[in-house]
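> call design_seq(struct)
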């Protein structure tokens, strides 16, 4: 079966976040839907000034149907609290809406796999729709996949993390890129990695104050 071009034909012609979430539940814009439990659409304040964009749902998010409810999400909330960012007033989503994984080990656990360029491109219409509806003033790109989806495939988080950058499209916003909270959980020096994440989120908080 040939992989469809992207998700555009599944987007509703009108409506806000609830209408788009319902439509995304039936998205077949890439082949990740075949193995995932469900589409995991964005959640939170649909008129938020702050949007946080991750890579893709994890195992727990795939099962529950909500973004950032697993260990990485809990760590992100703790880091946001230290940076004086109110997650309850933010909108959170992922660049890719289905969980991509491989099974390994005796229990055949589902282990995250990074989405391909084609999968990122196929899912981008959903992210663009969320940006247009929410119209955030500041966007935090959590990890390389999110940053590349927002700022182009040549973007490198390691070169520009914590910088206040301009989102080229589809809405005017400031973008601050940082590492994904799951990278903190995998880091050899978790305390140092966590401090770096907090510092980048503080940069986003400053950008929000200046917006």
């Amino acid at each position: 079966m040939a992989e469809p071009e992207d998700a555009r034909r599944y987007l509703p012609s009108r409506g806000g976040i609830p209408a788009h979430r319902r439509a995304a539940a039936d998205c077949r814009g890439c082949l990740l839907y075949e193995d995932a439990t469900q589409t995991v659409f964005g959640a939170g304040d649909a008129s938020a000034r702050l949007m946080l964009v991750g890579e893709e749902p994890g195992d727990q998010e795939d099962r529950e149907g909500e973004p950032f409810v697993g260990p990485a999400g809990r760590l992100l909330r703790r880091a946001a609290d230290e940076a004086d960012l109110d997650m309850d007033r933010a909108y959170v989503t992922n660049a890719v809406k289905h969980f991509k994984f491989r099974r390994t080990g005796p229990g055949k656990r589902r282990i995250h796999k990074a989405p391909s360029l084609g999968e990122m491109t196929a899912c981008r219409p959903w992210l663009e729709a969320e940006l247009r509806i929410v119209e955030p003033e500041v966007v935090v790109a959590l990890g390389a996949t999110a940053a590349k989806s927002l700022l182009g495939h040549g973007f490198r988080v390691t070169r520009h993390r914590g910088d206040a950058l301009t989102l080229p499209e589809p809405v005017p916003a400031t973008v601050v890129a940082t590492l994904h909270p799951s990278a903190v959980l995998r880091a050899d020096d978790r305390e140092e990695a966590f401090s770096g994440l907090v510092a980048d989120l503080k940069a986003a908080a400053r950008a929000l104050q200046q917006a």
